[in-house]
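Q: I have 221 residues here and want to know how they pack in 3D. Can you give me a structure?
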Amino acid sequence: MAPIKFYHHPMSPPSRIVLLTIRNLNLHANIEVVDLMNKAQLNPEFLKMNPQHTVPTIEDNGFVLWESRAIATYLVSAKAPGSSLYPSDVKKKAIVDARLYLEQALQISHSTIAYPIFLGEATTIPDDKKQKVYQILGNLNSFLEGQKYAAGDELTIADLALLATITSIYELGANVSKFKNIYAWYKRMESVPGHQENYEGAKALGNFLRSKADISSNWDD
C-alpha cells in the first residue's frame, strides 16, 4: 500500500495537528511542504485536488481529505482502529470530540490575532483578544484538574491538537505558564513523538509574526 501523501506547512497550527497524529501513529507518509508564502496552494494542480486550497491535506490511495481534525480522526480510525488516541467507546470518544471543539475555539481565537498581523493590518494585539484566549485556556485548565490529559488519563488526538495550538499561542506571547494544570500537561507532552517538530514550527510562526508587530514576549508584562 502506498504511503499517505501529506501536504503540509510547518508554521500552520492545523497542519501540525496532522503531523503530530502521523508521528504518534508511526505512519509512513510522504510529506510535501506547500509554499504558502508564495501561494503554491493556488496552483491549478493543488486547486484540483482541494478547491478550498488549504493545508493540511492528505491523499490516501485516491481518497483526498482536508480539515485537520477530520484528518486526525480519519487516520486513527482507518490506520489504527481501537487506538486510545481516538477510542471506540462512544462516551470516551464524545469527550475527545468535545475537547477538539474547545481546541477549535482556541485556534479561532489565535487566528483572529495572527491573521491581521500576517496581513499587515495590525501591529498590536487588542486586550479583548488576549482575554478571549485566556478564557478558553482557563476552561481547559479546569478540565485538566485531577487528570493527565485533556480527555482523561490517556493521550488522545485532542491532546495533539491542543499541543499544536497552545505552542503557537505561547510563542506569540501568551502567558500559558500561569495555568498550572496546562503547564504540567505541557511538560508531559514534551515526550510525545513529533513534539520537537511542532515546537520548531510554532517558534518559526511566532518569530515571523513578531517581525511584523510590536508584541511583548509575555502578554502580561
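Q: Anything worth noting?
A: DSSP finds eight helices and four strands in the chain. The mean pLDDT is 96.
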